[in-house]
Amino acid sequence: MQPALNDSERKSQQRRIRLTVAYDGTDYRGWQFQPEGPTIQRRLEEALEKILGEKARVTGAGRTDAGAHALGQVAHFDTLNKLPAKVIERALNATLPREIRVRLVTEMPETFHARYSALWKMYRYQIADMHRPESTFLLRTNWLRNTGVDLEILNQCCSIVLGEHDFSTFSKKEGARKNHLCRVYEAYWKKEETSLSFEIKADRFLRGMVRMLVGGMLAVAGRRAIVDDFSSALASLGRWRMAVPAPACGLTLVQVEYPEKFK
User: Fold this and answer.
1) 130 and 181: one domain?
2) DSSP type of residue 36
3) Out of 65, 78, 150, 228, which one is annotated catalytic?
4) What is the overall mean pLDDT for the chain?
């Protein structure tokens, strides 16, 4: 039996592993570990313990809501296990449930942090026309509703959120959080024949922010409010009755971007 490592020895032998993960979050209570109910983090940690023979704490780039999805969630964990990254990748995909797929596993320097090293994140919100017969097959990843709304008005709202703003109005309360500033780099709506999609890229996101922005913008495009109301709500830092969160099913974390040294 080998002697236990002291903290200094453990740190010197530890490897930091980065995961890029895609998942259908319909049947999960979000990314972050919860005392009850399945979460993506819990499933990853359970799979890693089987593969590595040790417990591994998985840290994500950000939380996703219950029922929301990801194409490019990024996470990291530390391990003393010497299994090559590609072996860990194959083993995870053989162990995890099929709605969670690990797209890439890479070894990183210890300075990499999935959350704090991120430059920006991109989310997409998808809406499918509820009257189309094929919409039944999209209900896990789209909000099924009327898509006949004014695209120009939606993008007027997008122009208002660009830049740095306090998004208190478009976020759910989070304990003692004091900083509600987010810098939005891109925000736009696209319309296809039978679908709508909203994409937003920012340095950080608050809890419920994307879904509440979607709800507020659609209220304006549906003539239940005007663009000036949306602008005033963003500036007022209070509650706005039109900022009702869109359903989580349409929300996907698309990408997390990092500095070149972590590519």
Assistant:
1) yes
2) S
3) 65
4) 93
- Give the per-residue pLDDT at 175: 60
Claim to verify: residue 100 and residue 176 sit in the same structural domain: no
- Say what the pLDDT of residue 2 is: 45
Are residues 182 and 252 located together in one domain of the fold? yes
What distance in Å separates the CA atoms of residue 16 and residue 79, rounded to the nearest whole number?
Answer: 7
Asked if 128 and 250 sit in the same domain, the reply is yes
Longest dimension (CA), the chain: 72
Instruction: Tell me the chain's radius of gyration from C-alpha atoms.
Output: 20
Q: Distance (Å, rounded) from C-alpha 167 to C-alpha 132?
A: 35
- The answer to whether residue 100 is domain-embedded is yes
Q: What is the CATH number of the domain that holds 78?
A: 3.30.70.580
Does residue 65 have an active-site annotation? yes
Whether the model clears a pTM of 0.90, i.e. scores above it, the answer is yes
CA distance 92 to 46: 10
- Write out the residue range of the structural domain in which residue 136 sits: 120-257
Model pLDDT for residues 126-184, shown as the tens digit of each residue: 999 998 888 888 999 999 999 999 999 999 999 999 999 999 999 987 666 678 999 99
Q: Return d(Cα 14, Cα 187) in angstroms, integer.
A: 40
Number of structural domains the chain divides into: 2
55 with 10: CB under 8 angstroms?
A: no
| Tens-place pLDDT, residues 17-41 | 999 999 999 999 999 988 888 999 9
